[in-house]
């Protein structure tokens, strides 16, 4: 959730019913501020990578939890639909609840350790924490039961957003070509998936990257560099397209290499682009300006007044807005795409939606 490095994609989707599954399977969560429920409250970081202050959390929890929204995030809704309790964050006390899953996500993090180094929990470290949990599970419920829990569990990821923005905002001395950098990102991501697979994980969910150039923060950045019409930044969106093109190829490769490996991809890009252009279709009035922030499009990440820029404005009715702050969606937006992730059609979530993925035996 850095001033520049935590830019995320947000997808708005049509309304779907959310039936609850009858059985339970654990949910393990990895990634960045799209998914972070407050892990960054427990590490030595700075306010730019945190959301543990007002007005974050005001709509649902009524207090700031560390989630970069006015309320719940995607994993919170998915847990509800799957008839699971709220998935605990890794640093939370009460590890007896880990049988339902754990959330390891960290705002500002990426696939690469270099992304937000020293301020966020990178993906490899999240894998290390997961291995710790796997050991705890074996001690608590035994080898046989823990193997069953881990193999039936869903492993959901939102990552690479910050890696892409790190390359976008780097100076001219950035040492990698786009192809080399993408190869590094995919290599780290693959090693994490393989690490989880080695511990028994079989069902993986990945959110692809949306049109990153269309976030309020990036529109504001575009104005700063002289693009006066407030349009999306094409260069940023093209980086997302590059990642999205490589993602299914890598997952199909893993499916061939690893017996029993299954995956699904949520097409953030498609639905987010549509929601930007047709906000009323998704129940929103405003899709270019955020509810909380300052400057053009309220695109400066100042919400709460605890970061570098202290001044901020807060909208009157958050339900009108796609974005809560300059880089993250409102709870209402998260709910809409959680519904689609849960039981959407193959044009946006494939080869499985999460309802069918939870029901799929391994």
From TrEMBL:
<dbReference type="GO" id="GO:0016298">
    <property type="term" value="F:lipase activity"/>
</dbReference>
<dbReference type="InterPro" id="IPR035669">
    <property type="entry name" value="SGNH_plant_lipase-like"/>
</dbReference>
<protein>
    <recommendedName>
        <fullName>Zinc finger protein</fullName>
    </recommendedName>
</protein>
<dbReference type="InterPro" id="IPR036514">
    <property type="entry name" value="SGNH_hydro_sf"/>
</dbReference>
<dbReference type="InterPro" id="IPR001087">
    <property type="entry name" value="GDSL"/>
</dbReference>
<dbReference type="Pfam" id="PF00657">
    <property type="entry name" value="Lipase_GDSL"/>
</dbReference>
<dbReference type="InterPro" id="IPR044552">
    <property type="entry name" value="GLIP1-5/GLL25"/>
</dbReference>
<comment type="similarity">
    <text>Belongs to the 'GDSL' lipolytic enzyme family.</text>
</comment>
<keyword id="KW-0732">Signal</keyword>
<feature type="signal peptide">
    <location>
        <begin position="1"/>
        <end position="22"/>
    </location>
</feature>
């Amino acid at each position: 959730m850095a001033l520049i490095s935590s830019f995320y994609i947000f997808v708005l989707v049509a309304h779907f019913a959310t039936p609850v599954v009858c059985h339970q399977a654990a949910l393990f969560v990895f990634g960045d501020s799209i998914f972070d429920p407050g892990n960054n409250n427990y590490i030595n970081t700075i306010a730019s990578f945190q959301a543990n202050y007002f007005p974050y959390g005001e709509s649902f929890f009524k207090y700031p939890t560390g989630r970069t929204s006015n309320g719940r995030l995607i994993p919170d809704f998915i847990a509800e639909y799957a008839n699971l309790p709220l998935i605990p964050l890794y640093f939370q006390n009460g590890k007896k609840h880990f049988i339902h899953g754990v959330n390891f996500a960290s705002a500002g993090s990426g696939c690469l350790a270099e992304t937000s180094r020293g301020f966020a929990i990178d993906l490899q470290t999240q894998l290390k924490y997961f291995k710790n949990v796997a050991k705890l599970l074996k001690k608590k419920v035994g080898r046989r039961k823990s193997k069953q829990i881990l193999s039936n569990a869903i492993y959901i990821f939102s990552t690479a957003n910050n890696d892409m923005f790190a390359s976008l905002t780097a100076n001219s001395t950035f040492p990698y070509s786009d192809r080399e950098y993408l190869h590094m990102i995919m290599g780290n991501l693959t090693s994490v998936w393989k690490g989880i697979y080695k511990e028994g994980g079989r069902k993986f969910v990945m959110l692809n990257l949306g049109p990153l150039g269309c976030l309020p923060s990036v529109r504001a950045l575009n104005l700063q560099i002289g693009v006066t019409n407030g349009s999306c930044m094409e260069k940023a969106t093209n980086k997302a397209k590059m990642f999205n093109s490589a993602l299914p190829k890598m997952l199909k490769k893993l499916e061939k290499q690893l017996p029993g490996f299954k995956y699904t991809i949520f097409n953030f890009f498609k639905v987010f682009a549509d929601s930007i252009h047709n906000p009323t279709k998704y129940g929103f009035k405003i899709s270019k300006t955020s509810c909380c922030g300052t400057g053009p499009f309220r695109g400066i990440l100042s919400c709460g007044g605890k970061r570098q820029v202290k001044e901020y404005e807060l909208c009157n009715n958050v339900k009108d807005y796609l974005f809560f702050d300059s880089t993250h969606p409102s709870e209402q937006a998260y709910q809409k795409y959680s519904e689609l992730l849960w039981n959407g059609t193959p044009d946006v979530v494939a080869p499985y939606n999460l309802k069918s993925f939870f029901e799929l035996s391994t």
